[in-house]
Design brief:
By secondary structure, this protein is an alpha/beta fold. It is about 40% helix and about 15% strand. It folds into two domains: about 120 residues; about 90 residues, no CATH class. Strands 2-1-3-4-8 form a five-stranded mixed sheet, with helices on both faces. Helix 6 packs antiparallel against helix 7.
């Protein structure tokens, strides 16, 4: 327990309950549904929220808080989110423990840690990361181009999307082991080729999600007691 990130509280002596069926509920972003389903194997109930909420962190926070309050069963809520542009800041669960991976976003979550993401960033900062979940539920610049070319003239559509990618040199398709790469490789190849970017498949990991669901909440997790509120500082400690 000494390695866990425990926000200071007057109830600091409390210990989170053991992970048991009937005691755990999962709330996660739909972009990591492949990875969640692989590690969860139907063990705990899971609610997936739409990725589009990320476009407005305030809406993400409101929807997450509403969903947390709707959970009536169990003692523990596991969040399949990171800090997500402060979209989780201000969340609280009045009567249940709240467990959150201590990462900035799903990219760091699927690379294994904040440190792993920093290493990738330092080696090649201009990288646009893809997963099957991001392709299916998000909006890549190549998908945006397909939309814009029907709304604007082709030159304008290309210009808009190139502006989105002006600081990028590489597309990295993350192999998390939760899906067959061949199903999403064509989009990644078309994306990279159309915008003249390098394409690379890089290894990911779902170890953090395994740890989340198995109750191994050490230094890479926030463990909030019932009633505690999430703050940005908790992710920076």
């Amino acid at each position: 327990m000494s390695d866990r990130i425990r926000p200071m509280s007057r109830r600091y002596q409390l210990e989170p309950p053991l992970v048991r069926e009937g005691e755990v509920q999962i709330i996660a972003c739909e972009t990591i549904d492949d990875e969640i389903r692989k590690v969860n194997r139907g063990r705990f109930p899971c609610r997936f929220l739409e990725h589009g909420l990320h476009r407005t962190p305030e809406q993400l926070r409101e929807r997450l808080q509403d969903t947390i309050l709707q959970v009536k069963e169990g003692e523990v809520i596991l969040l399949g989110y990171g800090l997500c542009s402060n979209g989780v800041v201000g969340l609280r669960s009045p009567h249940k423990w709240l467990i959150i991976p201590r990462v900035d976003d799903c990219i760091a979550l699927l690379l294994g840690s904040r440190e792993a993401y920093r290493e990738h960033f330092q080696r090649q900062p201009g990288t646009y990361y893809l997963t099957r979940g991001w392709i299916e539920h998000g909006r890549t610049p190549y998908q945006q181009y397909q939309e814009y070319r029907h709304k604007y003239d082709p030159e304008t559509a290309v210009w808009i999307c190139r502006e989105l990618l002006k600081n990028y040199t590489r597309v990295a398709l993350i192999d998390t082991g939760a899906y067959e790469l061949e199903g999403c490789r064509p989009h990644a190849e078309s994306f990279a080729a159309f915008f003249g970017l390098q394409l690379e498949v890089i290894p990911g990991t779902i170890q953090l999600l395994h740890d989340l669901i198995e109750g191994r909440w050490q230094r890479d997790f926030l463990v909030l007691e019932p009633g505690q509120e999430v703050t940005e500082e908790m992710f920076r400690s």
